[in-house]
Amino acid sequence: MLGYIQYVLVNSVRELGGEEALVAVAEKAGLKALPSFRIDTDYDNAQCLALIKATGEHFGLDDKALFALYAERFIKASRQQFPLFYDMAESAYDFLRRQPRIHQTLASSVVDHSTKKAVASKFELIEDEGRFWVNYRSENALCGLYEALFYRLLEHYGETGRLEHRRCVHRGDELCQFELFFDGKRP
Ligand code: HEM
Predict the structure, then answer these.
(1) How far apart are CA 148 and CA 153, in angstroms?
(2) Gene3D superfamilies from the entry (predicted)?
(3) How wide is the angle at C-alpha 150 spanned by C-alphas 148 and 155, nearest 5°?
């Protein structure tokens, strides 16, 4: 996975628990030290998942609590680092329609063709008769992260809505499928 998710995670660990937490999380994740993650570099998926798990364990948070905490920081960090993506979107719906393209834009600086292809293949949007679905296929199975980011993004735009998890790899389905609803607005 490109290093932005890990970059925000490591910064969060540092801000919440200082150097001590960084050392403890690295150790729990089986790393001597945490790399300086870069958005233009592709990192091992298993390493990213191990870091997420180690962070949750270190701070005593289950996945839901960890992803909620992370989403709070991620939306603020990405708003600061990539203001244009937010300014271009008038609403959470507008932003989410662009989210797969945002990922692809970020992957465009990576030289490796297979990384670009992998990033592009993860999210598929389906809009049909006013309904908005997202198919998410990834060995990382971070549907909990998607859900937390969805709700925090609504908050950013001062909106409400909900996500229905129709299919889920954690329940044995071959992909995760979300249906997204936006109060007061129809796609
Ligand atoms: C400006 C805002 C955003 C930036 C800069 C950003 C950036 C990134 C990057 C660089 C990755 C790694 C991509 C890869 O290697 O496949 C990633 C992963 C991910 N992002 Fe975003 N993202 C943003 C917004 C969002 C939003 C709003 C959502 C969901 C509502 C989202 C959901 C995810 C998920 C679920 C992954 C993990 C993908 C996997 O399975 O590997 N992102 N993001």
Answers:
(1) 9
(2) H-NOX domain
(3) 95
pLDDT score recorded for residue 66: 98
Mutation test residue for ligand 1: of 85, 137, 149, the one with most atoms within 8 Å of CB = 149
24 CA distance to ligand 1 middle (Å)? 26
**pLDDT tens per residue across span 46-65:** 999 999 999 999 999 999 99
* Among the listed residues 34, 5, 4, the one whose alpha carbon sits nearest the alpha carbon of residue 142: 5
CATH architecture classification, 83-187: Alpha-Beta Complex (3.90)
pLDDT in tens, 65-124: 999 999 999 999 999 999 999 999 999 999 999 999 999 999 998 878 999 999 999 999
- Ligand 1: residues whose CB is within 6 Å? 1-2, 4-5, 39, 78, 82, 85, 99, 102-103, 106, 119, 122, 138, 140, 142, 145-146, 149-150, 153
- Give the model's pLDDT for residue 187: 53
